[in-house]
TrEMBL record:
Transferase as UniProt keyword: no
Function text: Involved in transport from the ER to the Golgi apparatus as well as in intra-Golgi transport. It belongs to a super-family of proteins called t-SNAREs or soluble NSF (N-ethylmaleimide-sensitive factor) attachment protein receptor.
GO MF term list: SNAP receptor activity
Lineage, highest ranks first: Eukaryota, Fungi, Dikarya, Basidiomycota, Agaricomycotina
Source organism of the structure: Laetiporus sulphureus 93-53
Topology within the bilayer: Single-pass type IV membrane protein
Name of this protein: Golgi SNAP receptor complex member 1
Family (UniProt): Belongs to the GOSR1 family.
Keywords: Coiled coil, ER-Golgi transport, Golgi apparatus, Membrane, Protein transport, Transmembrane, Transmembrane helix, Transport
Chief localisation class: Golgi
One GO location term (cellular component): Golgi medial cisterna
Coiled coil region boundaries: 48-115
Subunit description: Component of several multiprotein Golgi SNARE complexes.
UniProt-annotated location(s): Golgi apparatus membrane
């Protein structure tokens, strides 16, 4: 197996693993909207941090593999084929997408933590008052929590949809690469198709000429 094939396989495996870990990380991180106390009570905070470290490590490995593929693409002694260059470019684009997605997810998590801290402070203020106004505020907080849970569900569905689109894109890209490889390994196929098309056009012209001559003879016979 060549160096390129080995790196290509490793990239595909890491990309699939990273996509799965990122989806799990996003789901677990969305739980912070329910408050830091709940995270600490269930142990989710520790799992979330461990998962964050895992996706960071996977992204670093992907970057290293892409750097090695980039080095191969500039090898003048053994230049890669066009299909290899396209695959290397695709891996680089996937890495950039994953890096942006991870940064965006971390930003959302930090915003959720800030919001959880704010909501925790509001809850403490509400608990300080024992009046009818406190009951009204607690009811309003219940509506806010329902909205947060609905938002969490929508975010989880969005991440699942993004993962499915990513898998479909990788599948279609693999099919395109295999088709390009077939065309490169069978250079005479395009010539054969062109010859068939040319012969079909020639036969159509001949048939048209014969029909035209027959039509002219028919008119001469009639008139």
């Amino acid at each position: 197996m060549s160096t390129y094939d080995s790196l290509h396989r490793q990239c595909r495996t890491l990309e699939s693993l990273f996509d799965t870990k990122l989806t799990s990380y996003a789901r677990l991180a969305s739980a912070v909207t329910r408050g830091q106390d709940d995270l600490e009570a269930t142990g989710s905070a520790e799992r979330w941090k461990d998962l964050e470290a895992e996706v960071d490590e996977l992204l670093d490995k992907l970057r290293e593999l892409n750097d090695q593929l980039s080095t191969l693409s500039h090898d003048t002694d053994n230049p890669p084929s066009q299909s290899m260059l396209r695959a290397i470019q695709r891996h680089s684009e996937v890495y950039q997408d994953y890096a942006r997605e991870l940064r965006r997810t971390k930003t959302n998590v930090q915003s959720a933590l800030d919001q959880a801290n704010l909501l925790s402070g509001v809850r403490n203020d509400i608990d300080a008052y024992k009046s009818s106004a406190a009951d009204a505020l607690l009811s309003e907080r219940g509506h806010i929590d329902d909205s947060h849970r609905m938002t969490d569900d929508i975010l989880a569905q969005a991440y699942e949809t993004r993962s499915e689109f990513s898998r479909q894109r990788l599948t279609l890209s693999g099919i395109q690469t295999r088709m390009s490889g077939v065309l490169h390994t069978m250079p005479g196929m395009n010539n054969l198709i062109a010859m068939v098309k040319t012969r079909r056009r020639r036969d159509a012209i001949i048939v048209g000429c014969i029909v035209g001559v027959c039509f002219i003879f028919l008119l001469m016979y009639i008139f």
